[in-house]
Amino acid sequence: MPELPAAPEQPLAAVVRYRVMATATVRSAEDAQSAKLGAHPKGAVVEVAQESINADGLQVVHAITPPPGATQGGWIKIYTSKGKQLLERLGAVDDAA
């Protein structure tokens, strides 16, 4: 039986870490037209609390880690519309440590 895609605006059971694979723009909302809050540089690790699909059909995540120079996190695409990978999932944050 095939797996169903994740539902839009799906909160995660636990905070998940992602590694930034290429400079990733952080926006105030899920859509590409929303205000830019900043960008995470390649190699950074961000913590994510929510996943969704934006109006363009691209998977986006809500990072709680603010980009350099910002005071809040925001939405980041996992892949660009041209297929370039911006984020790589590392796994859940271990709160017990």
Quickly list its features.
single chain, about 100 residues, mainly beta, five-stranded antiparallel beta sheet, two-stranded antiparallel sheet, 7 strands, about 45% strand, globular, disordered N terminus
Oligomer: single chain
Strands, count:
7
Gyration radius, rounded:
13 Å
Low-confidence stretches: 1-7
Assign an overall shape.
globular
The strands making up the biggest β-sheet line up spatially as 6-5-4-1-7
User: Helix proportion of residues, in percent?
Assistant: under 10%
Overall structural class, as computed from helix and strand content, comes to mainly beta
How large is the share of residues in beta strands? over 45%
Number of contiguous helices: 0
User: How far from one another are the termini?
Assistant: 37 Å
Question: In words, what does this structure look like?
Answer:
The chain is mainly β. It contains no helices and seven strands. Strands 6-5-4-1-7 form a five-stranded antiparallel β-sheet, with no helix packed on it. The protein has a two-stranded antiparallel sheet with strand order 2-3. It is globular and about 35 Å long. 23% of the residues are buried. The model is unreliable at 1-7 (pLDDT under 50).
